[in-house]
């Protein structure tokens, strides 16, 4: 009997189309874009490919669930305390680094080039020939050097940036010039023109970028957060930005999303808000990854991208 | 007798400071930021390091001039018909590619990411989670593959773009996947997501990007011009942008600069204007290049970056 597979994603139709075109073993495949659409298959599905926020409220009703493949990298919705952990959870990895690297380098360049100031000058019909900044000689510090950080490092090296990396212990990315661990995040921050966080939401990453780290950054520094909002002490960040303690921030993620309408970050002139779009899960990236894991599942091999519920990633 | 050297540049003080810190033979070095300041040395200077627009009106009074090193890459101000040609002219090369590559990739990424739309959404306090585009699978076509085009090609390859190149005849950049020559610019344009011009202002480049080339571009294509305004038929471009024939343009250079206040390009919503700042002449880049040429001049060696007055570059 082929396993019963439920696709539960806002982009379910795209996933169904992409998977149908792949050479997979026979499957009972059901596609649902909403919980209502998923209703008929909740009790019987053994394998689920799902957007975490969509699947979470339905978890307890999936009696036959053995394996859940998340379409997202971040699975804190599913590893939160109190939720069931009696199934295999895998997330998406290795496909977001490229998108994140485009985002980080694009925004860092625009920061140097004063792209937004020039854009406003244009709207005022003003020829703004002020000198732009440049990447030469600058230092980019990565808070977290997983597969995403490593791809940002590789791309930063193409622009000849110096790259620093803060990790728990690992030192295996060849594009990082110098590593920092433990209490040394403040030391790394002090040496950075750009500080880029790409950490998942875990107990260990919570408020890692705190008042002390923000205080250690040079006044011209730019903070970029493409990981999770919880990494940054938002109150301390607002203060650092309001007082000009740092030059600016490019923020894709926030403590609360969507960012509440009355949040002070909306109105700060040195903040760019990109509404959690830095690296979305494109079905054309995720479907092949799921298909490979599905082959492994069916043939009894160990799955890729296994998530440790306790660690949270 | 050491040669008498005049620095005539808006950034003359920076040049004087940088050159003073270099191990050069004894020199009679004069720094002037304006023509008035240059007055005492006009007749006697043998070597001139100058911003072309500043030096042009003074050329005829430089009786002892033997070599002029331009601080700019573009020297059409000095090669125009009717001006004296009885001296060695060298321009700045090899230092602009890096800046141009930052510019081109930064703006191409922002185009895909809808950076300006998101910026405006933020000002309206709106969480804009629309899906961004990405570079994967895209094609960038270079009109001109000199030292600048080659560096843009190298950087584009870091982002895994397909790179096409239109040149007169040369095919020596290893980062170009396919070359086009002669009448084939329209064929290249038809295959491009981004068309990037980096040509000098010469008779051969005038209106190379004309109505036919713009018509050949796909509707979603972006035109980027970091070379000279004369390369593009501006009237045809305005029409292509007004009618949505192409998606947009990022323009650093124009037929007339500063762009006249009543020019239609100012008001088009799919145009970004960057006021000829894509690659300025940073004294820290130009001073070493001049110093090396100066050593060669003094020791009687051939100079680097010799400009052919007839060809214009």
Characteristics:
homodimer; 313 residues; alpha/beta; Rossmann fold; 2 domains; seven-stranded parallel beta sheet; 11 helices; 12 strands; 16% strand; elongated
CATH architecture of the largest domain in chain A: 3-Layer(aba) Sandwich
Question: Helix count of chain A, per DSSP?
Answer: 11
Helix-strand sequence of chain A: EHEHEHEHEHHEHEEHEHEHEEH
Radius of gyration of chain A, whole Å:
21 Å
Q: What level of helicity do the residues of chain A show? A: 25-40%
Short description:
The structure is a homodimer of 313-residue chains. By secondary structure, chain A is α/β, with parallel strands linked by helices.
What does this structure look like?
- 2 copies of one chain form a homodimer.
- The first copy, chain A, is of the alpha/beta class.
- Chain A folds into 2 domains: 4-95 and 281-298, Rossmann fold (3-Layer(aba) Sandwich); 97-273, Rossmann fold.
- Helices cover 31% and strands 16% of the residues of chain A.
- Chain A is built from 11 helices and 12 strands.
- Chain A has a 7-stranded parallel sheet with strand order 8-7-6-9-10-11-12. In chain A, strands 2-1-3-4-5 form a 5-stranded parallel sheet.
- The longest helix of chain A has 17 residues, at 97-113.
- Chain A is elongated and about 65 Å long.
- Chain A starts with a strand and ends in a 15-residue tail after the last helix.
- The mean pLDDT of chain A is 96.
- At the A-B interface, α5, α6 and α7 of A face α5, α6 and α7 of B.
């Amino acid at each position: 009997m082929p396993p019963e597979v439920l696709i539960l994603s806002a982009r379910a139709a795209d996933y169904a189309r992409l998977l149908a075109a792949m050479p997979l073993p026979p499957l009972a495949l059901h596609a649902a874009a909403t919980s209502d659409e998923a209703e008929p298959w909740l009790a019987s599905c053994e394998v689920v490919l799902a957007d975490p926020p969509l699947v979470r409220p339905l978890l307890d009703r999936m009696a036959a669930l053995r394996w859940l493949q998340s379409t997202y990298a971040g699975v804190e919705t599913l590893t939160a305390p109190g939720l069931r952990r009696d199934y295999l959870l895998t997330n998406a990895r290795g496909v977001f680094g490229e998108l994140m690297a485009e985002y980080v380098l694009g925004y860092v360049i625009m920061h140097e080039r004063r792209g937004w100031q020039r854009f406003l000058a244009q709207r005022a019909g003003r020829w703004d020939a002020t000198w732009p900044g440049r990447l030469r000689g600058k230092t980019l510090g990565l808070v977290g050097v997983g597969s995403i950080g490593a791809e940002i490092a590789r791309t930063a090296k193409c622009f000849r940036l110096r790259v620093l990396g803060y990790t728990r212990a690992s030192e295996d990315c060849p594009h990082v010039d110098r590593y920092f661990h433990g209490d040394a995040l403040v030391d790394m921050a002090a040496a950075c023109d750009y500080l880029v966080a790409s950490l998942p939401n875990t107990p260990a990453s919570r408020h890692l970028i705190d008042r002390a780290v923000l205080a250690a950054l040079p006044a011209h520094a730019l903070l970029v957060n493409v990981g999770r909002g919880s990494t940054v002490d938002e109150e301390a960040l607002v203060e650092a930005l309001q007082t000009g303690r740092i030059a600016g921030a490019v923020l894709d993620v926030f403590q609360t999303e969507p960012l509440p309408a009355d949040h002070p970050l909306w109105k700060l002139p040195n903040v760019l808000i990109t509404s959690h779009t830095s690296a979305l899960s494109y079905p054309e990236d995720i479907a092949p990854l799921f298909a490979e894991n599905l082959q492994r599942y069916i043939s009894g091999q160990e799955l890729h991208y296994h998530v440790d519920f306790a660690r949270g990633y």
